[in-house]
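Build the 3D complex.
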Amino acid sequence: MAFFIGRRAGKGRRAAGIDGTFAAGRSREAKKCGEMGPAQRKGFSMSYKFLTGVLGAAALAFTASAASAATLDDVKEKGYVQCGVSTGLAGFSAPNDAGDWEGFDVDLCRAIAAAVFGDPEAARFTPTNATERFTALQSGEIDVLTRNTTWTLSRDTKLGFNFAGVNYYDGQGFMINGKNLPDVNSALQLSGAAVCVQTGTTTELNLADYFRANNMEYNPVVFQALEEVNAAYDSGRCDVYTTDQSGLYAIRLTLTNPDDHVVLPEIISKEPLGPAVRQGDDQWLDVVKWTLYAMIQAEELGITSANVEEMMNSDNPEIKRILGQEGESTLAADLGLENEWVVNIIKGVGNYGEVFERNIGQDSPLKISRGLNQLWTKGGIQYAMPIR
Amino acid sequence: MASQETIHVAEPRGSLLNDPKVRGLIFQVVVGAALVLLVWWIVGNTIENLRRANISSGFGFLAGRAGFDIAQTPIDYSSNSSFGRAILVGLVNTIIVAVSGIATATIIGFLVGIGRLSRNWLVARICTVYVEVFRNIPPLLVIFFWYFGVISVLPAPRDSIELGLGTYINSRGFFMPKAVWGEGAWLIAVAFVLAIAMTWFVARKARQRQMATGQQFPVVRTAIGLIVGLPVLAFLVTGLPVTFEVPQLSTFNIRGGWTVKPEFLSLYLALSFYTASFIAEIVRAGILGVSKGQSEASFALGLRQGQALRLVIVPQAMRIVIPPLTSQYLNLTKNSSLAVAIGYPDLVAVGQTTMNQTGQAVEVVAIWMIVYLGLSLTTSVFMNWFNARMALVER
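Done.
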């Protein structure tokens, strides 16, 4: 009865070969993206938006069986994980100068690929806008959304998603041009300002609530695409840029004069950002969830990409268990993964702390401090459920 | 039609199935039923898929609290209003930009279209260049041109360009004094309406007089006198009830007064200029479509160039112009959905925000389609009525 079954269309195309072919395929595709000029990319994102929005709806209308249950089987069969990422947020998910996707969210996707296939390169990325990301996940175009998405009740229920955990605890902040507005040092002085904001985000709602609660007015300047918001703020169309604080630090780097801009101290909301999957597929939810926990747990146990080989010979039962060196353990099999899935994750991308520092922490231009995202043993709230 | 009937009569009547009327009916019933079944299957399938994917469906979300703000709210709206209200705001914004765009595009289009036929070499060439430039650029780029190329390079608020009379222009928009209507100001509006009614009456009388006696009456001058004079008189009589709120520079921007936002300005100008280039060609075609003998005959009757154009050429050209003009109006209305690119809160932009906050893509897309269909059909009905009025009345 189906006219087409969107998600299964590419089935079997990639059934053979896991290692080399994918790496080549991926980087070739990525390069194509990288070669596009900015104007072309804009056109691409525009048409793409309509494609996902409308085709997503169409997919729901015409597909006889949308989003079947066993995502893990489908992923294994096609040979790669398809992740939804942002269209380019430095440090979180953005193509580098070679055209390969890089960042904190990208590495979570690569970790999932490593857990499933033992190969962090067996991941493909779909850049999504704030507005098209949910349709992309609902329609089965992507397997998991690793795109700084805030976990909220309505997204968990009404949109038909499950959040697999929190990989970054964030909060919404404000950035202004300190050179033009030297007297402003608090968000409470922003009454009457023009505020740039990306539509379809929780940010947009928090902004309305915050200004209303404090009896202040503002002029919302709203765009669909992140690049458009950045351009509008940079050209002075608005006085204030608001989004998650981590995002503000990332965006500041891309402005014409990054040093002119200051992030105001107020944090007006809780923004727990995490990976989301479709509801009704507990096995795939478990894979994504425990991949994240394994990364956090590895950091807690001191397992890094540098020492993972020698840690495999450790006498510590906890380390042995998590690295799959405990005989007769069925932990991995119960998840539907290979015995050395954690080893593959750590070898592939490193533990949580490594991924953090490399992409957005002290080893990156963003220099974001761990803050709430420190381990619970070190004063933060990142806490992995026991892997046993 | 005629040939079919003759064939029908000529053929001998066989079984009922060979009767073209019955056959036609059967085909129509089959196609109709297939269509209904298809729609029924799609709707059922969609609902089933949404249910299976645990996505809520139905239009109940329209009553929920929107929670987001909209930049341009011609009707009352706050973040406490409902999603339905938000979409209504978007619809009103779409209508505002479409109507103002259609008005401006028509004026520019007629000027340029007539200008292209001018005997003045410079005027004709300028109009040709205008048409060829705007007609051959995608409308989205024209919008970007106005938004990024023209308006965003204007100075920042603190360096606003002052245009006199409390009017400012800067990268945040165009600011002008807002009239604050005081006690008794309604009399001015009444005077204005009265003046228009009187003008219509005078024009009618003058026409009748000219028909009867051949004597002319200066209608235009009388009309200007009435339409300007009566409201001014009312303004003075009621004791100057209108005050003006002049824009003031504040910390962030110019406050007070009446603001035209750059998003609206860019979209409005882009749609007007883009569509005007097509209208110009339609107008040119309409004028050239009136046979040369018509203008020669009017000159022979002693009409001046302008009179010939106004009384003889344009009324006939209108019959050729109106049908394609309707398509251009529809195009402009639909092109206004490109507003999303620059953040003008039109129906599509607000709908996308709603879609994303509620996740109800199918419903929002359905609303979009119904609303644009409704807008287009309304425009068509109006233009068809206008066309019927302008059509050649054969006696």
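Chain A touches chain B through 59 residues (CB under 8 Å).
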